[in-house]
Amino acid sequence: MADQTITSVSREHRKFRPSAEFKAQANLGSDAAYKRLYAESVNSPEKFWDRQAKEHLVWRKPYKKVLDWNPPHAKWFLGGKLNVSENCLDRHLGTHRENKAALIFEGEPGDVRTITYKQLHFHVCRLAHIFENMGVGAGDRVAIYLPMIPEAVIAMLACARVGAIHTVIFGGFSAEAIKDRINDCKAKLVITADGGWRRGKVIELKANVDKAVENTPTVQTVIVVKRCGNTVNMREGRDVWWKEAWDGAPNSHKAKAFDSEHPLFILYTSGSTGKPKGVLHTSAGYLLGAKLSSHYVFDLKETDRYFCSADIGWITGHSYVVYGLLSNGSTVFIYEGAPNQPEPDRFWQMIDRHGLTILYTAPTAIRAFMRWGDNYVLRHRLDSLRLLGSVGEPINPEAWMWYHTMIGKKRCPIVDTWWQTETGSIMISPLPGVTATTPGSGTRPFFGVVAKVVDDKCNEVPRNTGGKLVIMQPWPSMLRTLWGDDERYQRQYFSEFPGKPGVYFTGDGARQDKDGYFWIVGRIDDVLNVSGHRIGTAEIESALVSHPAVAEAAAVGRPDELKGQSLCVFVTLKQGQVASDELKEQLRAHVGKEIGSLAKPDTIRFAAGLPKTRSGKIMRRILKEIAAGGEVKGDTTTLEDFSVVAALQAED
Ligand code: WTA
After folding, report:
1. Ligand 1: residues within 6 Å at CB?
2. Model's pTM, two decimal places?
């Protein structure tokens, strides 16, 4: 069939409107206001963004031009100068926020630190001096490999202060992954810790760095934070303790101003496929996107205590722990460890103990909480919460409803936020005081985002038909290139449709429903061909997860001589459920009932665990190889736990 659109099978129609009470206090509480602002943001983007940039950012030198768009390259706020760390810190000094908590940190062992804006500013200023004394400045690359502790935030902001480009490497990555990333960007300085706490054990971060830097000729210095007190090797002339460098450094620092387009950070992302790409974000546009979206999507109030469970090593940690929140003067709660340490109720306990008001987490975590059982939640009040968020994957309606009733007590709006490392900030999401939500849908685009669902020729498909999700116009927080590989940048994101060099291809499949709401149906590369219908993975998986025995599911296609492709699903069961042939039959019937018999899986395999990336996304590429009976090839360095794959292969 020439028609490459995607058949949509979801039948979710429930709607949840914001309460009158929530609306009344919201930063944006009227649909008419959303529509007016949205229309302006896409019809007169330069006017809209000009006003936002003036209102939301502190400039040292005003810009001359809002946008220079030479597809696929965009420059925003040309000629302007600012300092990103000043926008996150100095702007709050001398105001009522000066002595407000910027960070509340809880370590896995239970240690708590509160750091005010003024204190955070001291720390960042000191580190900025240390950097300058080491000769680390504008344009130099700094690798940060730390646990989720305040020093991670301090290090990022100190880089921004001196104009160095940080690349944060998730603390779960191996020496090999650190080495590759450092060599790709040629980092001069590495900041790490002796170790970090995870499930009661010390993760030996410094030992991993030692191994990595054996083969990274550009690294001159390694700064080491003492976190766990485990023994480490300190190489004379290369390694310094953070504390020792610290003592005596002045705690004020006059920040230099940098161009709007000065690079702020590189973040390596592989998604679920291929060699890591160094996504490059720059200063003003990125910060504006992160700040404005935080304000509206999280409806931030001066009194909020916001908790995002993402690690600082992911884009979510960059935009919605550090830059978007601190630039808004919010109080951010960060937690070092595992959600089930010492027991699976750690998050709920911390929410009650610290009076946290907003929780932003991922569907994979929500499904884990569901699997661990409601009793862990019911022990706690959770009455401080007022807003919930989800990010990272399509959230299946089952998990959405659980989040809504069990965590939000039917009181808290849920913002299901669609975006990517590349987009820098949230692109599709409800606004909590405005949008009626539907479980599983990210609803409508954020300001300035022209999202469309199109066919292979870039023509918009009819409502309720799936296709490729694209963004038609540039936006301030978009990636600028891939570090050292502009050709790949063009090929990967702007070459999907010949003759349309300005259309950004997200790689995701989606559909819009009759109300214009967006539904992500999965990655385009994973779309299944079932009896001549192309169906996104999310819908089949979501049908499976709506069965009471199922905790998690992944659907993949398997080459089939007769049908071309047959449907194979991997299923993890909830605690206490027993795998059996009867259950397989029940699940097949259940999918038939939920979607229709065309989507009944040909093969169902029970699995103790599914292969996931370290940020919790299911790696369907690996499951496809296992389903086809082949060897698992290709890059597995981003895999969380290889034993899951070994177990799946062994039972094959
Ligand atoms: C997926 C994470 C559905 C999507 C911020 C996207 C989502 C990829 C959602 C980016 C969501 C993220 N609903 N799918 N709310 N959020 N995704 O770069 O496939 O780690 O393209 O950025 O995650 O993942 P990344």
Report:
1. 269, 271, 315-316, 390-394, 416-421, 442, 506-508, 520, 523, 615
2. 0.95
